[in-house]
Design goal:
It comes from Terrimonas ginsenosidimutans. By secondary structure, the chain is α+β, with helices and mostly antiparallel strands. Helix content is 35%, strand content 20%. It contains 24 helices and 24 strands. About 2% of the residues have low confidence.
């Protein structure tokens, strides 16, 4: 649609207009240019799914066009972006027309915007006070669902708002969307529902880790992952991504005149959808009278957004009464009865200043981008992992590039893309090293992987990283022995390897700057205490490739003594739960290496136990072998890892999610979506911390 020259020109115009709009210096003479730029970015976002600018920057330009047109209504044109929904469709799926257009929402960024919205609504309705329903603005891929005679008939993407892509086969892979729902008991024959498809943060992190383990480039963020997955042509691949969906609006229905509909407010419609088996924001929504409570709730929700299991980019404020919604009506762009309160931006543009190459504990070489420091979502970002050489090539990155950076919740920052159209010719190619940047050994890349590795296990960088991992909280948990101290001791020659932790010269350490008697005694106590850690922590601390905490526990339960693994073949390892070919090969390789065996023998000599100390069963209901447990929310007295350890001591297994295989869900304060999901599965026993302690005989 856009030639390379036109694209470059529009990119340059975007940069200039962003600077001008920040101070309201866009002149009416530039309005045509502004409209062209907005249409260009609509195309990039809705058609190519490849945005050039951050959402907040697009909103900034859109607001500026609205301001100019409001100041002079005579300049408004029928094709202005303010007068229509963004156009453009992909051609990969059949087109599907929505029964009611999916309009955009007007955006607000502060309390003044919400107050202005409330004032206009009261003026149009003649009311002194309006009741609002407030709910999270989920950040995923928008969908429209049609049910006919209680069966799911069609699923579609938002598309251009009038029609989208028909993706019913993919929608059917999302388990939180019921294939049938009893609308007919309310006299509803055909209904159209709006919603958002998401990937929760945990599933996103796990899927990305699988990609990294396979040597593939990770996905940029949960939003793009969800939106992109909807357009995958293979439904089986869609099913693997763990998509979830929230539905939040009934946009159209036909009903029997003999039955009265059970809802007259938006909040009641969300309750109805929940009761019919949909995941609606029933638990998250709040209803308030007056705008000040709405403002307070929006600000409160923004403070806790990082603790949520999903990405949200704001709150949606809706007039609750459906008759009032009809009275307020809509513009060609957005409904007058709803507004989005947008949170602070988590995207920004910056400049790529250089790339450093770091060596991990398994020898992997990770390129790290150094960018011009930029604030994103309350954090100043200056370093970003690029994962591997293929990512650099796929994103077409060059030193000196202007880049779009995103930080989504607790997920590490990503470079979404380079803005190649802004290059001046002074940019430089990124040269990936052929030798280890630390020990200068030749780098090696296994067939089928994207990661280059230093295979010299004596490489100082790897040794340091292995020691840091061994000391970490989830491994041997040696308090006060973090990255800085490990690097300091290693550089001074006080510490050379993992066994050296238990041979430290504490008298010499006591003479170092910053190490008084108290800190030295604390470190010595922590080192000694770590000798009593259970076997699974030691296994995890060894840093065997592909062996995480769960696999470490599986391995610990499989032997009487850690050295027993010397006798295990790859086939023996494959018979263990959740151990696949890659993991089995890595474990077998570790215990076939004489240097590793010598290290384990040293550790045992220094006082660490390599035995699987089976603990006796405490008083109570007996052994929980084969029973699964999941802990959610904040427990009153126990830390999560303490509670999990108690269950595991009795043979229980800790799982990560709610499913029909879960036996016990132990809930604390702010249990969230896991509790609601568990309530729908009759076989799960939902208990409190006190009931859990009573169950295991420690009440």
């Amino acid at each position: 649609m856009y030639t390379q020259d036109a694209t470059k020109q529009l990119q340059q115009q975007t940069v200039a207009l962003l600077k001008s709009s920040a101070t309201h210096q866009v002149s009416p003479m530039e309005i045509r240019e502004l409209r062209d730029v907005l249409r260009f970015h609509e195309y990039r976002y809705y058609v190519l799914n490849d945005p050039f600018i951050a959402d907040g920057e697009y909103d900034q330009l859109f607001k500026e066009l609205e301001r100019l047109e409001k100041d002079d209504p005579a300049i408004v044109t029928a094709d202005s972006p303010t007068q229509r929904v963004a156009r453009g469709l992909t051609k990969d799926f059949p087109a599907a027309q929505h029964l009611v257009p999916m309009l955009s929402l007007d955006n607000s960024y502060n309390a003044d915007d919400l107050i202005s919205f409330d004032r206009k609504a009261r003026e149009l309705t003649g009311l002194n006070e309006i009741e609002y329903c407030v709910e999270p603005k989920f950040d995923g891929g928008s969908i429209s669902l049609i049910y006919e005679d209680d069966l799911l008939a069609r699923g579609a993407t938002r598309g251009n708002g009038v029609e989208g892509d028909e993706i019913t086969a993919n929608i059917r892979q999302i388990r939180s969307i019921p294939l049938s729902a009893q609308f007919s008991k309310y006299g509803i024959q055909t209904v159209e529902i709006r919603g958002e498809v998401l990937i929760n943060k945990n599933n996103f992190a796990k899927y990305n880790q699988q990609l990294v383990d396979q040597g593939l480039a990770p996905l940029a963020n949960p939003r793009n992952a969800a939106s992109g997955t909807l357009r995958i042509k293979d439904p089986a691949e869609v099913a693997k991504r763990g998509l979830e969906a929230f539905v939040y609006h009934i946009s159209y229905y036909t009903s029997s005149a003999t039955k009265e509909l059970p809802f007259t407010t938006h909040a009641q419609s969300l309750d109805l959808l929940w009761d019919l088996g949909f995941r609606s924001p029933k638990q998250e929504k709040r209803v308030f009278s007056g705008i000040q409570q709405v403002i307070d709730y929006c600000n409160e929700y923004e403070q806790g957004r990082d603790a949520l299991p999903y990405e949200i980019d704001g709150m949606v404020v809706k007039v609750n009464d459906l008759d009032l919604q009809d009275k307020l009506g809509m513009t060609s762009h957005h409904p007058r009865w709803a507004i989005a309160f947008k949170f602070k931006a988590r995207q920004a543009t910056s400049k790529l200043l250089g790339v450093e190459f770091q060596v991990g504990r398994t020898g992997s070489i990770t390129p790290v981008a150094k960018i011009q420091p930029v604030p994103i979502g309350g954090v100043t970002v200056s370093s970003i992992s690029l994962f591997n050489e293929d990512v650099i090539k796929e994103k077409d990155l060059m030193i000196g590039d202007t880049v779009l950076v995103e930080r989504a919740g607790d997920v590490i920052p990503y470079i979404v893309k380079s803005q190649a159209e802004l290059r001046t010719g002074e940019e430089k190619q990124i040269a990936f090293p052929k030798d280890c940047p630390v020990c200068e050994s030749k780098l090696f890349k296994e067939e089928g992987e994207a990661v280059w590795r230093c295979i010299n296990i004596e490489c100082p960088a790897q040794v340091v990283e292995r020691i840091i991992h061994f000391n970490s909280k989830d491994a041997m948990d040696i308090r006060g022995f973090g990255d800085a101290n490990v690097r300091k001791f290693f550089d001074l020659g006080i510490l050379k390897d993992i066994p050296g932790i238990y041979r430290l010269d504490f008298e010499k350490i006591g003479t170092l700057e910053g190490f008084g008697k108290k800190s030295m005694d604390n470190l010595q106590t922590a080192v000694e205490k770590s000798k009593a850690q259970p076997l699974h922590r030691l296994i995890f601390g060894l840093g065997i490739r592909f062996v995480g905490e769960t696999t470490a526990k599986t391995l610990a339960h499989a032997v009487e003594h850690l050295m027993d693994f010397r006798k295990f073949s790859k086939e023996d390892l494959l018979n263990l739960e959740d151990v696949g070919p890659k993991v089995a090969g890595s474990i077998h390789h570790f215990f076939s290496n004489e240097s590793n065996i010598h290290m384990l023998e040293e550790l045992e000599t220094l006082g660490l136990s390599l035995k699987n100390e089976k603990k006796g069963q405490p008083a109570g209901d007996g052994n929980f072998t084969g029973q699964t447990f999941l802990f959610t929310g904040t427990l009153p007295t126990l830390k999560r890892d303490e509670a999990e350890a108690m269950a595991e001591e009795l043979g229980g297994k800790i799982v990560s999610g709610v499913s029909a295989k879960l036996n016990y869900l132990v809930v604390g304060e702010a249990a969230g979506s896991k509790l609601e999901k568990a309530k729908k599965i009759n076989t799960i026993k939902i208990i409190s911390e006190a009931e859990f302690l009573q169950l295991i005989g420690k009440g």
